[in-house]
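User: Hey, my collaborator sent me this sequence without any context and asked if I could get a structure. I don't really work with proteins. Can you help?
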Amino acid sequence: MRIISLNLNGIRSASSKGFYPWMQQQQADIICLQELKAQESNMTAEMLQPEGYFGYFHYAEKKGYSGVGIYSRAKADAVIVGLGMADIDSEGRYLEARYGNLSVVSLYLPSGSSGEERQAFKFSVMARFMPHLESLIREGRDVVVCGDWNIAHQEADLKNWKGNRKNSGFLPEERAWLTDLFGRVGWVDVYRALHPDTTDDCYTWWSSRGQAWAKNVGWRIDYQIATPAFAAKAVSASIYKDERFSDHAPLSVDYQ
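Assistant: No problem. I've predicted the 3D structure and written it out in structure-token form, which is a compact way to encode the shape of the chain:
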């Protein structure tokens, strides 16, 4: 089973940059999308249901903002839209599709980089999301949460870690939250399990400022985070950088 996750930075923009022909070549079973920046009325037939795939979406109420989606070759047995928390769900940040004993989640955690108000919201989402992650792992299902978590966990996960220790995305509290998720709660960072030592090769996002892409001044903020039994099935993980559909790169993982 191949699962791909990508923050599109706008589904219409990614479409214009060749995302769909590339996607069709990947033979992926499931593709998780974040930051659609679109409402249903903006979506073309291809965006709603690419050839060979079912499409599921959670749109933000605000136009041109956030939103997540899942494409899958198999029809989902059930789809859960949102977390049941109005302020989070209005931003279109959580979509779960169930296939037998497997749950696949497309997640877009908030960014706090625009200022204190959004950082406070990010911390609030993290605090309320943790109990949900704790209950998911206890259900006994295979679960993989794919998406843009907007946090780099360790120093190896971003180029300029020294200069970002007081910046959103690499704050001590954010990093400790992920450490707690991987330690106490027991979720697995699938890419890191397969590639424990990569640095420059691990990045999935590059700022549009300066020459971040050209100089590979990147961050690893996109993850596939799975329950232990499902994580153990992962055999390879790769980050695709030969073409650019977005300011993020697709993260692809193959599971046996």
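In plain terms: The radius of gyration is 17 Å. You can pass these tokens on to your collaborator as they are.
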